[in-house]
Amino acid sequence: MSRTLSLHRHLSDRFRQWAPVFKAVSVLWLVLAMFMALPWAVLVIEEDPDATAFGLSILLVLGAVVLTWAVTFRVAVELKSWQMFVLTALSWITVSGFASLPLVLGAPQLSFTNAVFESVSAITTTGSTILEGIEFLSDGLKLWRGIMQWLGGIGIIVMGIAILPFLKVGGMRLFHTESSDWSEKVMPRTGGIAKATLGIYCGFTLTAMLAYWLGGMAPLDAVVHAMTSVATGGFANSDASFGAYADAPHLLWMASLFMLCGALPFVLYIRVLRGARMALWRDQQVHGLLILLATVCLLLTLWRISLGTPPFEALTHVVFNVISVVTTTGYASDDYTLWGPMATVAFFYLTFVGGCSGSTAGGMKIFRFQVAMLLLVSQLRFLIHSSGVFVSRYNGQALTDEITRGVVAFSFFFFLTIAGLALGLSLMGLDFITALSGAATAVANVGPGLGDIIGPSGNFTTLPDAAKWLLCIGMLMGRLEILTVLVLLTPMFWRR
C-alpha cells in the first residue's frame, strides 16, 4: 500500500512539473495549425489535391492540441527556470515535427527524414533544402515554406529578447541594462514588447511584399520572398534561389535592404518608434555590422572588377551575397564559389559572423567578436601594465564577469559543435569541404555550404539520411544558442 501511495505521489509530482510545459507548447501548435489553414485555403481555391494533405495535417495538429488541453485543463501555466529551458527546446523540436506533415503527405511525398530536414531548416531559418524542382511545387507548398520561415523568424526574436536573457543564455543578456531590459526600459509588460515586435515584423514583411510586387515579382513570389527575406531564412520559389532574378538588379538591392533590416536588433526599432530616433545609429553592435559589411563589400567588389566584371554588376551581386551570408539568410544570386579562391575563403569566414543579437539572424552574432576584441585589448594592457585596473565597456556599460563568461563559453562550444559535426559528417563519407562547410552552415543557420554538392548551386538531397539528422541537430543547437541545449544534457539539471 505504501509503495502504491509513493508511486502515486511520484507520478503526481511529475505531472505537475511537466503539464505546464506541454500546455504552453500546445499553444504554439495551435498557432501552427492556424497558419496551415492559409496554404490549405489557397489549394482548395485552386482545386489542388495537396489540399487534402494540409487538411489532414491540420486535423492531426489540432488533435494533439485538444488532447493536451484535455489532460492539462486545470493546470496553471506558471513556469520555473528549468521548465523554461525544456519549453524552449521542446517548442522548436515539436513545431518542426508537426510542420513537416504536409511535406510527407503532400505532392513531394518526402521521406520522413527529408521532410523533417526541410521543416527544421525552415523553422530555424537556416534555408538549406533537399527539394528539387521547386518551381513545380503547388502554390500551397511554396507558401508553406515561406510561412514556416516567417514563423521561425518571429519566434527567434521573441526567444532572443524575452526568454534567453531570463535563462541567462544568449546575446541579449549583454544588453540587460541597455536593450533587453524591456520590463523597465522599453515597454512595461511582456505583452507590450511582444505586440510591438510583431507589429514591426509584420510591417517590414508587408513593405517587402509590396516592394517586390511593384518591382515585377509575381504575387506569390512577392509574398514568399518577403517572408523569407525579413526572417533572414532564404527559401525561394526556384532552384536557382534569388538567382532567378539575377537580371533584375533593383530586386537584388531591395532584398539586400530587407535582409539587413531583419538582422538588426528589433528592440532598437521599438526604441526608435518610442522617440529615441538615434537608438540604431548609437548602438555599437549596429556600427560593427555596418562597418564589416561595407569593408567586405568594397574589397570583394574591387576583386571582381579586377577579374573583368562590370562595376555595377560586381557591386550589386557582391552586396547581395555578402549581406545574405552575413545575415545568415542564405539566398544566392550567383555561385560565388566561382569568383575565385579569395572570394570562396572570404565567404567561408563570413558564414560564422551572423547579424545582431535580438534579430532574426543566426551565427556567432557580431557583438561576440566585438567583446572578444575588447577582452584581447584588455589582456594586452594587463601584460604591459600588470598592476593596472582596466574596465572594458560596451555600449557605455561595463562588461561584467557574467557576460564575458557567457561569451567565452558560447564561442568555445560553438566551434566545438561545428568540429564535432564535421567529424561526424566525414565519417559518413563526405569530403572535407562538404563536411566542414555543412557543419558550419548548419550551426550558424546560414543555408548553403561550399563545394559542388551543397554549395550555392547545389542542395542537400544527396546526403545520407544519417548526415541529414546530424545537420538537423546542428541547426537546432545553433538556433537555440547551443548552451540552452547543452544544459539539458547535464545530469545535474535533472537532479535539481
Description of the molecule:
The protein is 65% helix and 1% strand. The longest helix is centred in the N-terminal third of the chain and has 44 residues, at 2-45. The chain has helices at 2-45, 50-71, 81-99, 101-105, 112-123, 139-163, 190-214, 219-230, 249-262, 266-273, 284-306, 311-326, 341-350, 366-384, 401-427, 432-443, 451-454, 465-479, 483-486, 491-494, and strands spanning 393-394, 397-398. The chain has a two-stranded antiparallel sheet. By secondary structure, the chain is mostly helical. A hairpin with a 2-residue loop joins strand 1 and strand 2 (397-398). The chain is built from 20 helices and two strands. Mean pLDDT is 86; it is low at 176-188. The two termini are 28 Å apart. It is globular and about 70 Å long.
Number of DSSP strands? 2
Total count of helical runs of at least 4 residues: 20
Strand content: under 5%
Q: Main β-sheet, in a few words?
A: 2 strands, antiparallel
